[in-house]
Design a protein that fits this description.
heterodimer; A: 403 residues; alpha/beta; Rossmann fold; 2 domains; 14 helices; 13 strands; 37% helix; globular; B: 445 residues; 8-stranded mixed β-sheet; 4-stranded antiparallel β-sheet; 17 helices; Oligopep_ABC_C (chain A); ATP-binding (chain A); ABC_Ni/Peptide_Import (chain A)
Chain lengths: 403, 445
């Protein structure tokens, strides 16, 4: 989890915005997402379908095609190198070379008419200049490394001759062929049975320990997240709503969405008769977020949530635990937190973002939260003088019930 | 936990509604080649009490869906009996079968594909009523409106089309359709696996409410064990067409006896990062139901397989022997494929010459006792002679124990809990004890 020596994380995603255009409207699939991944670290990305997890992954891989578009204020840096500015040709060496991806359905990433071996060999030829017998023996070695028995024979088999778990192993072998620095896993075990899932998760952990790669692990399964992730980003309707180290997130979730998500897992507390639910569905974000996108489903929502877009603020014990919710910072009366979030939105807000070029964006989010320091105390001072006690009581009641 | 169990039990009368006896469902190819049938369900016994939710869990391909479909006669049983309220429904046909079908309905996994996109929601829910000619047109429409309300949809949804709904709402439509004929028994085939967690919880709650309101009996098929733990009264664990263990849910989850159940439960990632799971990671994947192992179906992956007494080898060596046997089994399977035979005929002698290589790959970092060494070499000889079947049979003979030869029986391991494993017999060490001896941490005690 530590920074690399030069202080630059392996992957730094900053204010990523990916939109899709249709005739009538634009869909803001990813809307201002920021996170870092260090070498040897696993960042878990969790959210429901439609929350923008996969589009985030595709944006990093440079796989967003028309009608999709990565807005120019977005920044994706790998080892300090800006990826959004690359041409398609330049991107090709990054994709598969520096970053590899494992998808949910292994069959869709394997070509049915080539043997598994040939597909790995192709990757080796493209990215590592290997050929012929050398490439083939490396392919066998890779299959062995991902735990495929009798690799020398299976290298000549076709994908349909592999079982589901074996296919996913083969895909992982392909991903490793180019010795990537970052591995993006998009629901890699969702299509697999639990006993096979256990094998694949073990394998990924072993690979990570051996090769010191960064892993971005996308899943909707909180159990898998708890097991693989070092840190977690919770996504909702295109935004990261909470980010924290994994133990911290499970022990002490702050955003009402994260709380709801954790409570609705069946079997977590077998004694409950009825499961707590989050009513409604994930909305599709069409317009810029000038409000909290979770408000329509939020059990703790109040009027201001409809007009103020929450910014990330530090919550909880650990410094890298942030949540985007008007209820926080917790030690502040709600009127003041709203004011603070409002000011935050004015500074870095969605209205202004058109005018800002990528260079104007602060490199680290942490800087943004430092900026809020002084306002923080201003707001608190304000709160000391005048605001209605009734309001605060109402809101903090909501805030308190999460204990 | 105890309260909720008592609660649900009070709805049950204890009277058996569905009684399944030695049920087998095989899929024949019907081709000229006359290949082996797929033994999807291979001899299953259990009962479901009235008002109960019986869960069926297992990995994909274990036959749980086929079993569910056979119970409501969507598949024809190859042998065995399914009595429903005392009537053997595998014998029903024609009008009797149609009449009985009103009693047993199904909710499917995928709400995207199980609803006809060209019909309105109202038509979809009304269709079973039309087919079974229930009441007048007006009464049917009225009934559909009531159903919409019961599953939490709005009356105005009647004239909308399925594509206008989200996954959770579509599953509500599927449930309304299943309930239209007021069945007693509903097979729920992975009803929430296609849904997000928060929506999943809504549907699970709905199913429980409907069960209480109409006194329904559920067969709940799922691979997600946490869902099963939440909603089921009793659970059956399936593997390769067989029921490995049956028991009351909490009891089974807290003290599983069968080695497969133990491995399966330990494989679920716990949604709590502070918990260190002592996982039993099973090697390999389930064998093909076309060619299941003789003896115990789980023998090829079992962590506590009974070993023959005349061979003395370390756990590590046994592990390698198991892997070696898997490879040989895989080869003998591959040999049967037409393409392989063609290749051989045409002189592409693909992989038969490298038997030494396999032996080396498998055993290079362990020291084999002389007798094991001898057996392995013998098998390798068969293999390089181009006869993997002989190699497989030989290995089975010398390294196979009781688990490879004899089909286990069911043992009562606890109150209403049965397990299908040789190790419960008097003369053997129990699965839990054996796991500990072989270095696994178990959750017992």
């Amino acid at each position: 989890m530590s920074h690399t020596e030069d202080g630059e994380p392996l992957l730094a995603v900053d204010n990523l915005r990916t939109v899709f255009h249709s005739d009538k409207e634009e869909i803001r699939a990813v809307d201002g997402v920021s996170f870092d991944i260090e070498r040897g670290e696993t960042l878990g990305i969790v959210g429901e379908s439609g929350s923008g997890k996969s589009v985030t992954a595709r944006s990093i891989m440079g796989l967003v095609d028309s009608p999709g578009e990565i807005r120019e204020e977005s920044s994706i840096r790998l080892d300090g190198r800006e990826l959004t500015a690359l041409s398609e040709k330049q991107y090709r060496s990054v994709r598969g070379g520096d970053i590899a991806m494992v998808f949910q359905d292994p069959l869709s990433s394997l070509n049915p008419v080539y043997t598994v071996g040939n597909q790995i060999i192709e990757a080796l030829e493209l990215h590592r200049d290997m050929e012929g017998a050398e490439a083939k023996s490396e392919a066998i070695e890779l299959l062995r490394a991902v735990g495929i028995p009798d690799a020398a024979r299976r290298v000549d088999e076709f994908p349909h001759e592999f079982s589901g778990g074996m296919r996913q192993r083969a895909v992982i072998a392909m991903a490793l062929a180019c010795d990537p620095d970052l591995l993006i896993c998009d629901e890699p075990t969702t299509a697999l049975d639990v006993t096979i899932q256990a094998q694949i998760l073990d394998l990924l952990q072993e690979i990570q320990a051996k090769r010191d790669i960064g892993i971005m692990f996308i899943t909707h399964d909180m159990g898998v997240i708890a097991e693989v992730a070092d840190r977690v980003a919770v996504m909702y309707a295109g935004e990261v709503v909470e980010q924290a180290p994994v133990e911290e997130l499970f022990a002490n979730p702050h955003h009402p969405y994260t709380q709801g998500l954790l409570q609705s897992i069946p079997g977590r507390n077998p004694s409950t008769d009825r499961l707590p639910t989050i009513e409604g569905d994930v909305p599709t974000p069409h317009e810029s977020a000038s409000y909290c996108r979770f408000v329509s489903r939020c059990p703790k929502g109040f009027d201001e949530c409809e007009r103020v877009h929450p910014a990330h603020v530090e919550v909880g014990e650990s410094a890298d635990h942030t949540a985007a919710c008007l209820l926080y910072p917790e030690d502040m009366p709600t009127d003041d937190t709203v004011t603070q979030h409002e000011e935050n939105a004015d500074q870095t807000g969605v209205e202004a973002d058109e005018a800002l070029s990528a260079d104007d964006w602060p490199a680290e989010r942490r800087k943004a939260s430092e900026d809020t320091g002084p306002e923080d105390s201003d707001a608190r001072a304000d709160g000391g003088h005048g605001h209605s006690a009734g309001d605060t009581g109402g809101h903090s009641e909501g805030g308190g019930s999460d204990e | 936990m105890s309260e909720s169990v008592v609660d649900t039990v009070s709805h049950q009368t204890g009277e058996t509604l569905v009684d399944v006896q030695d049920l087998k469902t095989y899929y024949e190819d019907g081709g000229l080649l006359g290949s082996d049938p797929v033994k999807a369900v291979d001899g299953v016994n259990f009962e479901i009490a009235r008002g109960e939710t019986f869960g069926l869990v297992g990995e994909s391909g274990c036959g749980k869906t086929t079993l569910g479909r056979t119970l409501i006669q969507l598949e024809t049983a190859t042998s065995g009996a399914v009595s429903f309220d005392g009537t053997d429904i595998t014998e029903l046909s024609g009008g009797d079968l149609k009449e009985w079908r009103r009693n047993a309905q199904m909710v499917f996994q995928d709400p995207e594909s199980s609803l006809n996109d060209r019909m309105t929601v109202g038509e979809i829910i009304r269709e079973p009523l039309d087919v079974h000619e229930q009441g007048t047109a007006r009464e049917r429409r009225e009934k559909v409106r009531t159903l919409l309300d019961q599953v939490g949809l709005m009356p105005e949804h009647y004239y909308r089309y399925p594509h206008q709904f989200s996954g959770g709402q579509r599953q509500r439509i599927g449930i309304a359709r299943a309930l239209a004929l007021e069945p007693e028994f509903v097979v729920l085939d992975e009803p929430v696996s296609a849904l997000d967690v928060s929506v999943q919880a809504q549907i699970l709650n709905l199913l429980e409410e409907l069960q209480e309101e109409f006194g329904l009996t559920y067969l709940f098929i799922a691979h997600d064990l946490s869902v099963v733990r939440h909603i089921c009264d009793r659970v059956g664990v399936m593997y390769l067409g067989n029921l490995m263990e049956v028991g009351p849910t909490e009891q089974l989850f807290q003290s599983p006896e069968n080695p497969y159940t133990r491995a399966l439960l330990s494989a679920i990632p716990e949604p709590d990062p502070t918990v260190q799971v002592d996982r039993i990671t099973l090697p390999g994947s389930p064998p093909s139901p076309r060619d299941p192992p003789e003896g115990c179906p789980f023998a090829t992956r079992c962590p506590v397989r009974i070993r023959p007494e005349d061979i003395d080898a370390s756990d590590a060596v046994w592990d390698r022997i198991r892997e070696f046997r898997d490879v040989i089994r895989e080869r003998s399977r591959a040999e049967q494929s037409v393409g392989e035979r063609l290749k051989e005929r045409l002189g592409f002698d693909t992989a038969l010459a490298d038997s030494e290589e396999i032996v080396e790959e498998e055993f290079d970092d362990v020291t084999l006792p002389p007798d094991v060494q001898e057996h392995v070499e013998q098998a390798a000889t068969y293999l390089s002679d181009g006869d993997p079947d002989a190699a497989r049979a030989y290995l089975r003979e010398v390294f196979g124990g009781q688990c490879d030869t004899e089909t286990p029986q069911y043992y009562d391991v606890d109150d209403r809990q049965m397990s299908f494993c040789h190790r419960h017999a008097q003369e053997h060490v129990s699965p839990g004890e054996e796991l500990r001896q072989r270095g696994y941490d178990t959750h017992d005690g």
